[in-house]
Amino acid sequence: MAEDNLFELKVITPERVFFEGQVSMVEFNTTEGELGILKGHIPLTVIVDPGILTITTVEGPRNAALHAGFAEILPDKVTILAELVEWPSEIDEKRAEAAKERAEERLAKKGPDIDVDRATVALKKAICRLNVLQ
Amino acid sequence: MASTRDIKRRKASVTSTGQITKAMKLVSTVKLQKAKSRAEEAKPYFSNLYQTITSMLARSDQDVKEKYRSGNPEGKTAVIVITSNRGLAGGYNQNVIKLVTEAKLDPKNTWIYALGRKGAEGLAKKGFEIKKDLSDVINAPLYSDAMAISKELMASYEAGEIKEIKVAFTIFRNTVSHIPTMLRLLPTDEFVDDGDVDLLMNFEPSPDEALARIMPKYVTGEIFGAIMESVASENGARMQAMDNATNNAEEMVSKLELAYNRARQGAITQELTEIIAGANAIN
Fold first, then answer.
1. Closest chain B C-alpha to A124 CA, distance in angstroms
2. B212-247: per-residue pLDDT in tens?
3. A9 and A69: one domain?
């Protein structure tokens, strides 16, 4: 892969710097749909939707679970300010599985005391985690 | 001169106070290390958050900029005051309280969101209205706590109840230097353009919608950062205060030691003089 196809990517959370380095491509989910970014993208600000974050470096692609945040895209630099992002090794499969079931159960009941938004977010998170593991 | 027994008792009491302050210093040293590394890990997010918002707004249309710069004309000033729940931290709490009282805020037109019991008590005494006391958060601050505060504040801001959101906290420069600071989160200050602003920023979805979702994240992030800095500062301040107290106690003990020896010697001399005088009288 040619050197001049690389651009700078930063993925930062309130707890740590998750990823920082030169990449050739980054893909993630936005509220408007899936987005893949190569070098020289037009300036764009997007809101992150839970999904798989794929970072392609010289060594190849790596996946992570990206849950929330926003991204600023400039032609030579992409900054993802994530509220929560995890490498597959940090995900507990059993817990994600349980969380998914719980959220589905709650959504199925649809009682007045059920916070639908919260359950939807929880379900999205759990599905996203499980997808990354597969 | 005080009797030897009094001095001895005094010395024992100062020694045990010194032991307590020494133990407290050790505890806050350990806590400081934890808080310091958390604050340092959190720093990149907050500086990048601010930078990103800056560059995003610098590249945006005029009307998008205006919305977050003009604010509401009427309403209260909301101040998030971050102090500690416990005292014995030197001037740490007082400095933050002073910052708020000297900021020319009208107590009747200010809502205090207190994070830290000391700040809540201090400001209530000065006539400020404590809108909400969230002191428990300081014991174990989480990002979700900051999110809850920001959600509430943003709702009041959108509803026009408050005209500005400020946060009073202490920046952790290093272990010995902590700077009390008042920061205005909304409306944002004039953004400094960082050079290359010819490229016009695009937003997906629309600018209004995107910023409506990003601004709460910005406020949350800044609040969380302020909490992290303050917790590190609190432990740094307490460590210093306890170090001073331990040194003072040691100094006092050595002075009392001297006084005790002098008093003991005085008593011996006096006893000897009495015995000799008595013996002379018999002869």
1. 18
2. 788 888 888 888 989 998 999 999 999 999 999 999
3. yes
Give A46 to chain B, closest Cα distance, Å. 5
- pTM of the model as a whole: 0.81
Q: Which positions in chain A touch B201 (Cβ < 8 Å)? A: 43-45
Question: Which CATH number is associated with domain B38-241?
Answer: 3.40.1380.10
Size of interface A-B (CB pairs under 8 A): 72
ipTM, two decimals: 0.73
Q: In whole angstroms, what is the distance from residue B135 CA to residue B123 CA?
A: 14
Rounded to whole angstroms, how far apart are CA atoms B25 and A60? Answer: 49
3-state secondary structure of A7: strand
Q: Is the CB of residue B50 less than 8 Å away from at least one CB of chain A?
A: no
Query: Which pLDDT belongs to residue B70?
Result: 66
CB distance A81–B44 less than 8 Å?
no
Q: Across the interface, do A14 and B205 touch by the CB < 8 Å criterion? A: no
Nearest to B169 by CA among B78, B38, B80: B80
Residues 6+ apart with CB under 8 A from A58: A1, A6, A22, A24
The CATH number covering residue A114 comes to 1.20.5.440
A42 vs B44, B56, B202: nearest CB: B202
Handedness of CA A102, A104, A105, A106 (dihedral sign): positive
Q: Do A15 and B42 touch (CB under 8 A)?
A: yes
Same domain, A32 and A63: yes
What 3-state class would DSSP assign to A74?
strand
Number of domains in chain A: 2
